[in-house]
Amino acid sequence: MEIxxxxxxxxxxxxxxxxxxxxxxxxxxxxxxxGRSICFLCGRKLKWFDLVPIFxxxxxxxxxxxxxxxxxxxxxxxxxSTGFVFLGIFLxxxxxxxxxxxxxIISAIYxxxxxxxxxxxxIYDLKHKIIPNRFVYAFILFSFFTLFFxxxxxxxxxPTISHLAAGPVFFLFFFFLWLISGGRWIGLGDGKLAVxxxxxxxxxxxxxxxxxxxxxxxxxxxxxxxxxxLYLQKKRxxxxxxxxxxxxxxxxxxxxxxxxxxxxxxxx
Length: 268
What we know:
Number of domains: 2
Radius of gyration: 20 Å
Largest sheet: 2 strands, antiparallel
Shape: globular
Distance between the termini: 43 Å
Strand content: under 5%
Order of helices and strands: HHHHHEEHHHH
Number of strands: 2
Helix content: 55-70%
């Protein structure tokens, strides 16, 4: 039974991932998410069999069926990533935290919404180097509710001062970096994102997530600069090149949320 439920969560995540692709690609373009999907190159409307998550991409060899133009790997990456995240949510609440099935479903739905918002932010910031306020404010709102609601017992709780302060403390840290750099090092959108991370994880775990994001970001930036200097002739990346930071914050959050990583175990 548990295997069937796990497969359902994974497939449901893939389907939602396909929708998140649509939301992220159409946001601020003037196009409604209700409109028919089209090929961005030839402009022709796609049929339902062109839009089956993962399978259509593989069946048509990653190309548009109509004009044979290449389709971005973003589609299959987001679909699979959302599937694995939703599967991780099921495994965390049902097997690790031992929630009853009914409590697990309610908690899982809540965090599916939270992670869906984060995935949209991830994609959008990666493509446009800006975090859309609509989605980051929604993430903050859902994160705030976790302060006052115990998802294990489904009872109202009073948060500790440290947990309540985690969000504002992390925002002030990013605000300070933004202020002294004139916005060159970091954006205020990253600070807003850190508010929600702090309220979900708390002060200690939130610090671990943010520290991990800086470590991962530094490794990625250094590696990218090294590879570009060796293999790219025209467009080269350097340490000063602008790299969106929200994806690294979200990766750090995912690592700590699912694997309970504590950086103090590495530095102490």
